[in-house]
Amino acid sequence: MSGVGVARQAAVVKIFDAHCHLQDRRIASVAPQLIRTALDSGVQRFVVNGVSEMDWHIVKQMGDEYPSIIPCFGLHPWYVNERSPNWFKALREFLAETPAAAVGEIGLDKGAHAKNIDFREQVDVFRLQLELAKVLEKPVSVHCVRAFGDLLEIMSSTGPFPAGVILHSYMGSAELVPGLAKLGSYFSFSGHLTSVKPEKAKEMLKSVPKDRILIETDAPDGLLSVKTSSLFSFPDVVASIGETENQFGDSAAEITSLSKEGLNHPANIHRVLKYVATLLEMPEEELAELSFQNATRLFSYPGSKVQS
């Protein structure tokens, strides 16, 4: 398919970015351009996840300003050590004052990035927020690194979760999928998937029920790896995104420079769509529609901007 063909497709296909961080200081200054670029490429919704008390107000402002943004508030495990004594009260207040908001990003991390953060504290903070999401009947976005056994145990003792749990940038095994799905999990895939061997990624993707598949960018992280682009070529998608960016004059240079810095942006979800569809052996249009419907259903809670 030519670049022009993909550009036309992007104008028709609706895409839902189920997890990103447009408030991140690395891209916040160009967020308006990024949003405009993504909207023009077919991305209709952005789920913007706060990670600590320091950015919840920014996420709220973005949600108030942009109809396309679904705000989420949560304390990410990387920031557990920085929380204030009143963090949970503040979180409840943000959620009460923002009916359109969901919960997230929360989670568990036993990886190198969280090596100095006591795991028992992570579990306490995670459990509080998971229980809050269940009480509020809101979906919750979960980060999990090398802690899927703990996650399944906690979810089993607390769940099920009829409002949904988004396992963002899912990197767990295919074997874990049925148990997590039974508890109400949705499985969201990003460019991080390219760090997994394609054979393993394919097995995992095919184990996920079709009504639980989401796609995301995790921008400004989650940029697809160069390694994978040698296996699956994306020249047409890159061209279509480039054409979209070039429509914005001076802002195009700022947006294009993000990739040079190793940073991601929401219009790159077309690359994720192509990669995941390739592994699933599914037409891109079908995956786009399927994941959009799943996300729309998930985020159609009372007070939400989204209506199924």
From TrEMBL:
Molecular function per GO: hydrolase activity, acting on ester bonds; metal ion binding
Claim: Metal-binding is one of the keywords in the record: yes
Keywords: Metal-binding
Cited InterPro entries: Metal_Hydrolase, TatD-like
Signal sequence interval, chain numbering: none
Cross-referenced Pfam families: TatD_DNase
Xref: Gene3D superfamilies: Metal-dependent hydrolases
Residues at which a divalent metal cation 1 binds: H19, H21, E105, D218
Record-listed a divalent metal cation 2 binding positions: H143, H168
PANTHER family documented for this protein: OS04G0577500 PROTEIN, OSJNBA0020J04.13 PROTEIN
Protein name: TatD related DNase
Lineage: Eukaryota, Viridiplantae, Streptophyta, Embryophyta, Tracheophyta
